[in-house]
Amino acid sequence: MLNLKSKLFFFQNVLNGLLNNTSNIYDKLSKCARPVEVQESGSNDILNNIGFLQLSSRQTDIIAAVNEMLKKLGSKVTGTDRETRPDFFFEVKSPVRLFTGRNKELIELHERLEQRTRHFPDSQIIALSGLGGIGKTELVRMYAATYRKNYNSIIWINSERDDTICDSFDRLAKDVLGIPTIDANGGKKHVSSIVDAVYKYLENNSGKCLIVFDDAKDAESLYKYLPLGLHIPCGSHPVVLITSPNKDWPTWTDVIILNEWKMNDAMEFLKRALPSDTTGIDQLTQLVETLQRHPLALQQAVSYILRRKVRNHSYTIASYLQAYATIKKQLLSSEICSDVLNDYKKTAFLTWKDTFNAIAVDEYGAVSIKIMHCIAYFLAEKIPIKIFLKITNGSEDILYEAIHLLAKFSLVVEEYKIGHLRISKLVQDVIQIQLKDDFGDVAALSTCLELLVPEITPDMVEHARCIWKHSEKYPTLVEKYSCVANQIIECLLEQRMYQTGVKYAVTALPTLENILGKEHRDVLEMEKKVARIRVLGIKGGHCGIANQHGGM
Known about the structure:
Blueprint: H1 4-18, H2 23-33, H3 35-40, H4 46-49, H5 57-77, E1 88-90, H6 103-119, E2 125-129, H7 136-146, E3 153-158, H8 162-176, H9 191-203, E4 209-214, H10 219-222, E5 239-244, E6 254-257, H11 263-273, H12 281-290, H13 295-311, H14 317-332, H15 335-339, H16 343-360, H17 365-375, E7 383-384, H18 396-408, E8 413-415, E9 420-422, H19 425-437, H20 441-451, H21 461-471, H22 475-480, H23 482-494, H24 498-516, H25 521-539, H26 543-548
Parallel strand pairs: 1-3, 2-5, 2-6, 3-4, 4-5
Antiparallel strand pairs: 7-9, 8-9
Helix pairs in contact: 1-2, 1-5, 6-7, 8-9, 11-12, 13-16, 14-16, 16-17, 16-19, 17-18, 17-20, 20-21, 21-23, 23-24, 23-25, 24-25
């Protein structure tokens, strides 16, 4: 007697035999026949999904019969006697198109994960460490793409900060796993209960799960979110992969250090990315050595060269190296070089300095740079594009051209389908350093704060917190935009994010008091909001809010 999983596999093969015209057709049918589609989409009718095919009447009859059998199996598969849960992949993005090299690192990463699975079934945790922009995230994306068949599910958690981790678990629970995140009183559940519910779900899953915590700060900030101490059968414990610039991890974590590209990988990248008429082998070698084989710096250089070549067909690597040398002399003579930048940031700074100069002379350059200066103080992910319409006086066309210009130089990644931008943290660091050196940081932050007035939307509240954190260091900004501090906490209250609201108020309120005085209207307004948080937090079952912060 075939079990349920075997029956489903058998029927998928039947469909494959009937419709073997192309592999794409089979992929579509296989997805239609998976239990996850039966459970989540609410549609079991395969014929509805393949109506565009030219089928014979005999093929149609057979598929209809198979479809009916899948419906019956589907109702059983979604029950409690299900042998395995369906596949799902949460927030897993594809690697960049020009991903190059790292074959040895990919194999080592896979082998180390497999070894941890066999020898340390209760602590399958590996940390991939390296400098910002060295390619940690892209390597893990390539690993997920290469070995995805080894896992029943892959979960990607944005671990840049505590709030992004909470947000990832919240969306994973409610949007993918169907786990309620609102309590009986209408308030948002504490993140610990949501995390526990997610891992409880995984405890009942006999499949293999990979959880990626991307861009984590350190073990202390991540510990409470890790799947430690779960009572899961051997071989089914979630495999955890962490990316972090931090190299210091506890003994229960296996650490892999990711270094710069090897010379041949860096050369291969340039050969693939640049047209053959751009340069010869000597100039390729010189560029790789000049930029110290750093992946992100080389990517920026390629973007710059290609952009310049559109206007000047004779532009080559030699032209770029000459401009780079000029800027390097200027940088080495400045205080910022010795006081602020490490070797890697020096390389990045030099690379992007020339890029910024090129952007500045473009028709939309001034707008692009103003947006770029703002983005430096946002969170790195999920930056709403529409927020910058104020900078373009409401012109969507100008905004599109300005954003597209930044994307052409690989300074940002545009995700227009979902209306977001994302940026490397290293790029943000370099821009902040440049602005501080040029005394432009206050002006850039002032523009950021203007974008938040008069209202902060839910998709901007975490970005607003990040901007405010940078702005608190400047009393003139706090005095002028103190209303923003209250807008942030009001937005958090509206979303029932009581715990987050308290964490924010703990630092924001003393800053307002020190600069504005305790009798200032915005200080008094925030105190009222803190009192509301205490009451609502207690009603929602978050008693720790009142106990921990009762002295505020």
